[in-house]
Amino acid sequence: MEITTGMVVISAAGHDQGQWFVVTDADGRFAYLADGKERRLSAPKKKNLKHIRRTDLTLDVSGLTDKRLRSTLRALSQSIAEESE
């Protein structure tokens, strides 16, 4: 499972299960995730790769702000939810 910077992922385990994040960095077994609210870009969450699910979506994280990240992830999750209905 190749995880790269900018990839949009969904948490599959833990208290944040089901939440959408963007990968800010990845190394070996762990990815560093931010959602712009609970986990800011300046302090990403370290999460085991086994506990996240990839999506086919990517974002350009250079120049991205927490506010823009929040709104983008909210819009993506809503559009996916509407498509599945």
Protein traits:
85 residues, five-stranded antiparallel β-sheet, alpha+beta, globular, SH3 type barrels
Write a structural description.
The protein has one domain: Roll (SH3 type barrels), CATH 2.30.30. Helices cover 22% and strands 34% of the residues. The chain has one helix and five strands. It has one helix spanning 66-84, and strands spanning 7-11, 20-27, 30-34, 45-48, 52-58. A hairpin with an 8-residue loop joins strand 1 and strand 2. The radius of gyration is 12 Å and the shape is globular. The mean pLDDT is 92.
Number of helices: 1
Count of strand segments: 5
* Low-confidence residue ranges: none
Give, in spatial order, the strands making up the sheet with the most strands. Answer: 4-3-2-1-5
CATH class label: Mainly Beta
Indicate the percent of residues in helices: 10-25%
Can you tell me the CATH architecture? Roll
> N- to C-terminal separation?
28 Å
Along the chain, the helix and strand elements come as EEEEEH
Q: How many domains comprise the coordinates?
A: 1
Rg is 12 Å
* Biggest beta sheet attributes: 5 strands, antiparallel
> Approximately what portion of the residues adopt beta-strand conformation?
25-35%
Mean pLDDT score, rounded?
A: 92
CATH overall fold name = SH3 type barrels
Which structural class fits the helix and strand makeup? alpha+beta
Overall, the morphology is globular
